[in-house]
Amino acid sequence: MKILKNYKEVQLKNGAVLRYVKNNINKVTATEIMFSCGSRVEEVPGLAHFTEHMFFTGTKTLNKEEVTKKYFDFIGSNAHTTYRNISFTGKTFTKEFEDYIKTVSMLINESTFTQSAVDKEIKVVQQEIARGKDKFKSLSALQADYLTFGLNEFKFGNLGTQKSVASITSKDVKDYVNKHFVANNLEVFVCSPYPLNKVKKLVIKNLESKL
Q: Angle formed by the axes of helices 115-131 and 47-54, to 10°?
């Protein structure tokens, strides 16, 4: 999410960072919940992108279809993996802002990452690799990293290989999440009609305090 130069930065108690811009134009809140990890810290090629997929395969109380519907029913909701980050993005009506961050928190904290779900997702990602449509190698999710840091986008593809993805286990995914989805890796970008104090309270209550 493109943040204007006049954003306000707030360091939260357990290391997370909130960056805020007031939206005076309409009633939409734009949010990016970003964790500093991505493919640069994966031990198995493709694990970061695979982990992003796994957040949408089921929680303790919701199956895959229910999770997908709950998250993607928010307007403008998506998720991305780059060389440096994994992020959840959404443009919601401001009255839905709290529900959105609660939902992302649920994905992070309640996803079960079962081996059966991993086995099914391996086939999905392998098909993605076979199609050769790695959208992260085009000027999309990696564009910001490429333009900002001069990274070679073709060198740092995110999908891994057929063989590396086939080797991923439930433990690999759980270990990656436990290691990297922590508060001091978290940056939250919010552009909202809500005042900063209200945004801060909602982020702390529903997201930061859960990590």
A: 120
